[in-house]
Design a protein that fits this description.
mainly beta, Neuraminidase, five-stranded antiparallel sheet
């Protein structure tokens, strides 16, 4: 490039048309070996509609040499990129990360991010409008065609491949998703409309980071059990406190000021750490091991967690290997409630059944809701709710095989599961069990997280990241 990129961007202006430079002027401006072609003598102009990220734009076209070329100025507008002309060279800037294209009228070769490549047909100028190949420009700017049916549908940002997990939301309404690929593990923030992405972290420890309800922070521990905070807007990371005891199942308080976690080598404690002071405070220390799935009610006082009870080893008085047996009669997951506002309060066990209790949450009406799954896998999983005061259980959803459930920060409850016809349905479930279909798909939804107000849902479908809004899914990844 002739000019410093930052200078170009700082002074960039969109141009509405381009005059045809002389052939000698174009060759001089290119400063490289190029193929010079004469302007087309016979060419017919028209216009078509192209769709970029779901939005249609009208683009002027030129039929010449048996090919269709597209007005660069119209493409720049549709693709939301900057267009400039200087000394006979056309510059396009855009994409994520930033891509730079340099091209010239009547010249087949062009520069894409500093690499010389060639159009099939050179750009042509007619009546002050410059036309070029559509797919080549979109690809060079980091985008891609989104259909193979010949339709002019494009995405401004080429979608990432890999396996995706842990969908969350940040404060600016971007979907936070973890990607695992040959390149390793990274955490990305996606624009839910355009699929534009920003890498926040390439630290494998951050893969399952816990996002604060206000969407500003993500928390994770490293291999030494040291807590770290990641700013979900910028991706900057800082160490949080100095405690290095084992911490699992990180979960934030509703006001985003405290982080709760299971503590100890055997998860025998529950503790919290403040965002401001970084001081660890023990909440539960009853010596009961295998605590997990910590949740805090909207009131900030009620603590819900699970305890995994394992099998008990039994043998005879001589402790011979032959006599060793494992008693699994009482094994399974049980849910506990603790009112942290009660001084020296004790956790209360609220379930006794042998079913697996998954995705447990505290509803705004005080009930605990969870997915009840048959440990033998012979019956469909259902969505159950239990009243804490009398431990009475009510089944809210049992006409699908429930696979996942999630609660928005404002209290909307969503479940997904497999129907009798093999499809997957996503429902919003009311407190009385009535439900509305939010989304239907032939795929399988394994994870979901509603936005704060429940209007959009970030989810994982068949390993890909999607965002569901108004019954339609936008794919964020391949």
């Amino acid at each position: 490039m002739k000019r410093n990129l930052l200078t170009v961007l700082a002074t960039s202006i969109l141009v509405s048309s381009f005059l045809v430079p002389s052939v000698s002027g174009a060759a001089e401006a290119g400063k490289s070996k190029v193929t010079i072609l004469a302007p087309a003598q016979k060419a017919a102009t028209s216009s078509v509609s192209i769709v970029v990220d779901g939005k249609a734009s009208t683009v002027r076209t030129l039929q010449t040499g048996g090919a269709t070329l597209y007005a660069i100025r119209d493409l720049a507008s549709a693709l939301h990129v900057t267009l400039e002309a200087e000394q006979g060279i056309i510059y396009l800037y855009g994409g994520q990360p930033l891509h730079v294209i340099q091209l010239q009228p009547n010249v087949k070769s062009y520069q894409a991010d500093g690499v010389t490549v060639e159009f099939t047909q050179a750009p042509v100028s007619k009546n002050g409008v410059l036309y070029a190949e559509l797919d080549a420009l979109v690809t060079a700017l980091g985008g891609e065609r989104t259909t193979d049916k010949g339709e002019l549908q494009f995405a401004r940002y080429k979608k990432l491949d890999g396996d995706f997990s842990a969908p969350r939301w940040n404060a600016s309404g971007k979907a936070i998703v973890t990607r695992t690929s040959d390149a390793g593990v990274q955490v990305y923030a996606f624009n839910p409309v355009t699929a534009e992405y920003q890498q926040l972290s390439a630290n494998e420890d951050a893969a399952e980071l816990a996002v604060s309800p206000d969407g500003k922070w993500g928390a994770y521990t490293d291999a030494n059990s040291q807590l770290h905070l990641i700013d979900l807007a910028s991706g900057s990371t800082q160490t949080w406190g100095s405690d290095t005891s084992v911490k699992t199942d990180l979960s934030w308080s509703p006001d985003s000021k405290l982080l709760y976690f299971a503590q100890g080598d055997k998860q025998e404690k529950i503790a919290s750490i403040s965002l401001d002071g970084g001081t660890v405070k023990t909440i539960v220390n009853d010596k009961v091991e295998n605590k997990s799935n910590i949740r805090i009610a909207a009131d900030g006082k009620t603590l819900l967690y699970a305890v995994s009870i394992t099998g008990v080893a039994k043998n005879d008085a001589d402790s011979t290997e032959e006599s060793l047996t494992i008693d699994y009669s009482n094994a399974g997951d049980q849910l506990y409630i603790l009112d942290t506002s009660v001084k020296e309060g004790k956790p209360v066990q609220i379930t006794t059944g042998k079913d697996n209790k998954l995705y447990a949450s505290l509803l705004n009406d005080g009930r605990v809701v969870y997915v009840s799954a048959d440990p033998e896998g012979t019956a469909n999983a259902n969505l159950s709710a239990i009243t804490v005061s009398d431990k009475k259980t009510t089944i809210l959803v049992d006409d699908i095989d429930v696979t996942v459930a999630a609660l928005s920060t404002s209290g909307q409850l969503f479940v997904a599961g497999t129907t009798k016809d093999g499809s997957t349905k996503l429902y919003e479930v009311k407190s009385d069990g009535k439900k509305n279909v939010v989304y239907t798909t032939a795929g399988t939804i394994t994870e979901l997280t509603p936005s704060a107000n429940g209007t959009s849902i970030a989810a994982i479908e068949d390993g890909s990241a999607i965002v569901i809004t108004e019954g339609k899914a936008t794919k964020l990844s391949k």
